[in-house]
Design brief:
mainly alpha; 13 helices; 74% helix
């Protein structure tokens, strides 16, 4: 067997791994997403007031998970598309002789890696930023109809009883364009978020691995980093990267929510942002920041940690199987 390149998981495996991590994170964190949507739909409503208003009614626990099905569909398949697309892009970049000659690829072509908890090809900062942004924007466009239904399900402005009913109502009232309401703000939010996230996530993993290296020892670390400590390094890196990326992109998230909930009042991203600032001040662009930062930190860290661990274990098992042949 050739030693030029480690065994790599197939695209279908990355799709399934992304689907599983997306479903888990969406199911666990749906109450946080619902609260964020309710806070953003009305700037004057505080988090505590929103929470009390939801829990005061009948079936309060169930109400906190309202919209879970569209959220699971959107996040599950969105994560599957994102991770599989991101993997394909990173693999293409890592195997490009032209890009390698320009320094885009920061990993030896012969498997000599610096100690790292990453199970993915190690690329330059620009490559991490670009591949993350492209993968997220592509997945976001495909999953946009599910995103619109999810947000409206979570809002108190609509009373949809089923996914089919929601889709039918949107199509009758707004046509096909209703399923893509707020896509501009979503793309401007998601592409930079994903790009910045992947950039800082990979940087954080490298720095934390070097810290481990300085306190352990080269060979011992390389083995340790690929097993138990990889989980903690990846999780901490995910939390840090998500917090920073969320703070940078939250204004676009606030505008996106208004566009999707009130298309009659807000017609486009520029008009919506201007009207929000004029009527409610600049703080309206930061609505839901704490909730979104908390949810993103947990969901991104959980998704990436589980995803990378699944990939690492699968590739280790396949490499051992191939080596035994």
């Amino acid at each position: 067997m050739s030693n030029d390149r480690p065994a790599r998981a197939s695209s279908s495996f990355h799709f399934v791994a992304g689907l599983g991590t997306g479903i888990i994170s969406a199911s666990l964190l749906q109450p946080v997403d619902l609260l964020k949507t309710r806070v953003q739909q009305a700037h004057s409503t505080s988090l505590l007031h929103t929470f009390r208003d939801i829990t005061r009614g009948p079936n309060s626990l169930r109400q906190l998970w309202r919209g879970t099905l569209p959220s699971v569909i959107r996040t599950g398949f969105g994560s599957a598309l994102y991770f599989s697309t991101l993997n394909a892009l990173r693999q293409h970049v890592s195997r490009s002789n032209l890009l390698a000659s320009t320094g885009v690829v920061s990993v030896s072509r012969h498997g000599a890696r610096s100690p790292s908890s990453s199970s993915l090809p190690q690329l330059s900062n620009l490559a991490n930023l670009t591949t993350g942004a492209i993968a997220r924007a592509s997945a976001g466009l495909i999953m946009m109809p599910a995103t619109v239904i999810k947000v409206r399900y979570e809002s108190s402005l609509y009373s949809y009883q089923s996914l089919v009913g929601a889709g039918t109502a949107i199509f009758k009232q707004e046509g096909i364009k209703g399923f893509f309401a707020g896509f501009g703000a979503t793309a401007i939010r998601d592409a930079p978020y994903a790009g910045v996230y992947v950039l800082f996530y990979e940087q954080s993993k490298r720095h934390l691995s070097r810290v481990k290296d300085a306190t352990a020892g080269g060979d011992a670390l390389l083995k340790d980093v690929r097993s138990g400590s990889a989980l903690s390094i990846n999780f901490v890196s995910g939390v840090l990267a998500a917090g920073l990326a969320t703070a940078i992109t939250n204004p676009f998230d606030a505008v996106k929510t208004r566009l999707q909930l009130m298309p009659g009042k807000y017609t486009n991203m520029v008009q919506a942002s201007r009207q929000m600032v004029r009527e409610e001040g600049f703080r309206s662009l930061l609505d839901g920041l704490a909730l979104r930062a908390g949810r993103k930190a947990l969901s991104s860290a959980l998704a990436w940690t589980v995803y990378e661990e699944l990939v690492r274990r699968a590739e280790t098992k396949w490499a051992e199987t191939e080596g035994a042949l």
